[in-house]
Specification:
two-stranded antiparallel ribbon, 9 helices
């Protein structure tokens, strides 16, 4: 157990060094500042204003996810004794966890700036669903970007797509239904729409993140997975070559 734990520790320390700090600071930093200003200015926020600010904070905190899977050293890290799926999942966890914490901090800052009687009108679970669906869509764009850039820079597609997606949603005719007024007529149906978007984006991302095994084409046109076949003796250093 000591050797695998040591290897995972070394991998996590390496990934911590390559976390996209600049995009995270440029995205989540303004979100926290914007949500802290009403409290700093002793302004009382209405539920509608707090909801709008929290939605803007969600967009700003989601944008750095576009850079979470960027790996300029992809050719080097491919030789590590870890599947690419494991490396990418760890990279996502290390990048997304601080963003989720910062967005949660934005929510508590906005609630603190509201009148105590109005705080129940800020539906954090429903707004969290919107933020999670936007993050899943951003991640899907990043994974598609990896496919287009040979696993190097998912942000080539996700960064511009992450800017355009909220604009398209905000300007689309379906905006009143998607960004519904909390507890209004369209609130419940909009939650189902966001939940469906989250499920679809997560499922597609999981499929695209799966590591594809290399294959060889036989003389009759069939493809078979490549890799060494262990000998009957069980010696891991020997293989039967076809």
């Amino acid at each position: 157990m000591r050797r695998p734990l040591t290897l995972y520790t070394a991998l996590v320390l390496h990934l911590l060094r390559v976390v996209p700090r600049v995009p995270m600071a440029l995205g989540a930093g303004p979100a926290v500042v914007a949500c802290f200003l009403p409290l700093a200015l002793s302004a009382r926020l209405e539920p509608g204003d707090a909801t709008l600010l929290l939605r803007v904070a969600a967009v700003l905190c989601v944008l750095p996810v576009a850079f979470a899977l960027d790996d300029p050293a992809a050719n080097t890290t491919a030789t590590l004794p870890f599947p690419s799926t494991v490396r990418r999942l760890l990279r996502l966890a290390l990048a997304c966890a601080p963003l989720a914490v910062l967005w949660t901090a934005c929510a508590f800052l906005l609630k603190a700036a509201m009148h105590p009687d109005d705080r129940v009108a800020l539906p954090l679970p429903g707004l969290s669903l919107e933020a999670a669906a936007l993050a899943a869509a951003m991640l899907l764009l990043a994974v598609l970007g990896l496919r287009l850039s040979s696993g190097v820079r998912g942000s080539t597609l996700a960064a511009p797509g992450g800017v355009l997606l909220p604009l398209v949603l905000a300007l689309s005719p379906a905006r009143p239904e998607l960004f519904a007024v909390p507890y209004g007529e369209s609130w419940d149906s909009s939650r189902w729409a966001w939940a469906s978007a989250l499920a679809v984006a997560t499922g597609l991302t999981a499929v695209l993140l799966r590591e594809r095994r290399p294959t060889t084409r036989g003389p009759n046109g069939t493809t078979t997975p490549t890799g060494p076949i262990p000998t009957p003796s069980g010696d891991p250093h020997e293989a039967i070559r076809p």
